[in-house]
Amino acid sequence: MDTLKPENLPGHLAVIMDGNGRWAKKRMLRRIVGHQKGVETVRVIVDECSRLGIRYLTLFAFSAENWLRPKTEVKALMALLKKYVRDSTARMMQNDIRFNVIGKRADLPADVNVELDAAIQKTAGNRGMLLTLALSYGGRQEIVSAAKKLAIEVQAGRLDPEAIDERLFTESLFTGGIPEPDLLIRTSGEMRISNFLLWQLAYAELYFTEVNWPDFDKNQLAIAFRNYQARERRFGMTSDQLRQGQE
Ligand code: FPP
């Protein structure tokens, strides 16, 4: 099997971690067991991305729509999240990982927010991979929130509407300061974006795999990266233009 070219790994990898429930159902287990196994996969993939030198890893851990799930499942997911963040901070320090959260933090339980803040503060000085969890996150909500932020600046007389361009809009999103994803992986065979990073994924390569998130591992990640490395990213240009640019 070809080895990975370290110079052509995605700078920013985004992941829709899907299929925990189906993984559990197939094994006649409760959905929460699937989520527990999913957290183990999170640990493995965070470590591996950091080891490979990925600069930005963004994981869709809880969508704005996930609040509609049965109360017991939401509660269990929040408890898992809290435990993951608490248990992982030491490892993040070891691996120089900086921790970050995007989404509507006000919706999250207060005790979860306390853990998130502690991890963000503790890892703020790290310079390795930026690990971002999207929590109570929705792409459309994020775009509306950016528009609102800019409208408030205009209304206050601090911003000329003519100065609003793609760059400024991008910086007004929750992901301001983070380059856009180069690769999006979605597990479990669904081929949708599901309101994840709608603006930021404009030019990302999309990779879908049938593997459920609890079964996704280092080997599956390497397969996704190899697939990415075999692609030609043209950003609207022709192949000839790209080749000339490289010469
Ligand atoms: C999708 O499985 C998974 C989620 C709802 C979010 C991902 C959550 C985890 C991996 C666990 C918690 C995360 C962290 C970072 C601690 P699903 O329930 O939609 O699966 P299904 O589509 O098969 O039902």
Describe this structure in words.
- With 247 residues, the protein is of the alpha/beta class.
- Helix content is 45%, strand content 14%.
- It has a single domain (10-138, 181-231), classed as 3-Layer(aba) Sandwich (Undecaprenyl pyrophosphate synthetase).
- The chain has eight helices and six strands.
- A six-stranded parallel beta sheet has the order 3-4-2-1-5-6, with helices on both faces.
- Helix 2 (31-52) packs parallel to helix 3 (71-94).
- Residues 17-22, 35, 38-39, 42, 59, 61-62, 66, 77, 80-81, 84, 133, 188, 213 line the site of farnesyl diphosphate.
Question: What are the salient characteristics of this protein?
Answer:
alpha/beta, 8 helices, 45% helix, binds farnesyl diphosphate, 14% strand, 247 residues, six-stranded parallel sheet, Undecaprenyl pyrophosphate synthetase
Main sheet? Answer: 6 strands, parallel
Query: Overall mean pLDDT score?
Result: 96
Q: CATH H level: which superfamily? A: Decaprenyl diphosphate synthase-like
Q: SS-based structural class?
A: alpha/beta
- Which fold does the CATH topology refer to? Undecaprenyl pyrophosphate synthetase
Q: Count every helix, treating DSSP H or I runs of 4 or more residues as helices.
A: 8
Give the terminus-to-terminus CA distance.
29 Å
The CATH class: Alpha Beta
Output the radius of gyration.
Answer: 19 Å
Poorly predicted residue ranges: none
Provide the spatial order of strands within the biggest beta sheet: 3-4-2-1-5-6
- Return the domain count: 1
The CATH architecture term is 3-Layer(aba) Sandwich
The helix content, as a percent range, equals 40-55%
What is the 3D shape? globular
- Which percent range describes the beta-strand content? 5-15%
Give the tally of β-strands: 6
